[in-house]
Structures are given as C-alpha cells and as structure tokens.
C-alpha cells in the first residue's frame, strides 16, 4: 500500500483508490441558511423565495479523481464536471451566473472547492458522514449547511 500525497489517494496493487466514493443519487433533507447564502450572492427576493421551496437532488458520478455533479430541481438544473487538483473556469448557471476560477481538492475525506471571482470567500465542502452527504457552501460571511440522504 502506498499513500499518494498529491491526491490523498491510496495505491494498492497498482490501482489508485480515492478516500471516499461520493457516487450516487442524494435527496436533500436539511437546508440551513440557504436564504442568507443567496443574499450574499446578490440573488433577488422573488428568486430566493422560489428557490427556498425547492428540494434539490444531487446525482454524483465519480471515476477516480474525476467528478460530475448534477444538481436537479423542478426549476433549474446545474452540472459541474471537474478533476481534483485542476483549476477550471466555472460559470455558476442556475445560481448567480458568475464566472469563477475554481479548483476542487481532496482534504482527507472531504472535497473542498475554492471559487475565485467577484465574491470573496466563495466555495463549498462535501463529505460523507454515515449515510449522509454533507455540503457546506460559503459566500462572503454566509454559510449554508445542507444534508442529503442517499436516494432509495
């Protein structure tokens, strides 16, 4: 067994194993301070009220250190594809339609995203705890905490 520090992956028998497998379909069960987060993004009142009623579902496809995350609601859909450790240009369609320079890295068993652009302190962190997918999204001084359960 060999630990690969640049990716936090463990290599066994020539194969690389990522710390956690996020793959699956996840349904939201808790959404704390989503309105505060949207205010920090500058999203208008009517859109915030409509968004607060939605129950997003995340569909995550993970192949090694390559991810595609679909966030689905009855109102909007958002897709983000990335490889950990590689910076990319992201347009946050479905949220505030801003362009960010984004990078997602492994920090132990967590995926940590930093989005550099117009808004300071913007990004998110995903991790799995038990049978729950946790997501903390930040913008400026606001933190939204979401919890998802695996869809059955």
UniProtKB/TrEMBL annotation:
It comes from Oryzias sinensis (Chinese medaka). This is Cellular retinoic acid-binding protein 1. Belongs to the calycin superfamily. Fatty-acid binding protein (FABP) family. GO terms for molecular function: retinal binding; retinol binding. The keyword Glycosyltransferase does not apply. InterPro entries: Calycin (IPR012674), Fatty_acid-bd (IPR000463), ILBP (IPR031259). SUPFAM superfamilies: Lipocalins (SSF50814). Gene3D superfamilies: 2.40.128.20. Keywords: Retinol-binding, Vitamin A. Cytosolic CRABPs may regulate the access of retinoic acid to the nuclear retinoic acid receptors. Residues 24-41 form the Cytosolic fatty-acid binding proteins domain.
């Amino acid at each position: 067994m060999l630990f690969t520090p640049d990716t936090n992956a463990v290599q066994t028998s020539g194969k690389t194993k990522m710390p956690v497998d996020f793959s699956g379909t996840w349904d939201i069960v808790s959404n704390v301070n989503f309105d505060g987060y949207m205010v920090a993004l500058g999203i208008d009142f009517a859109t915030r009220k409509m968004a607060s009623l939605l129950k997003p579902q995340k569909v995550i496809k993970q192949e090694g250190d390559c991810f595609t995350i679909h966030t689905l609601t009855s109102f909007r859909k958002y897709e983000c594809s990335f490889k950990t450790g590689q910076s990319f240009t992201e347009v946050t369609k479905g949220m505030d339609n801003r362009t960010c320079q984004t990078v997602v890295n492994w920090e132990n068993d967590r995926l940590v995203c930093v989005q550099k652009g117009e808004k300071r302190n913007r990004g998110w962190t995903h991790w799995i705890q038990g049978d729950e997918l946790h997501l903390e999204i930040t913008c400026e001084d606001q933190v939204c905490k979401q919890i998802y359960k695996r869809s059955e």
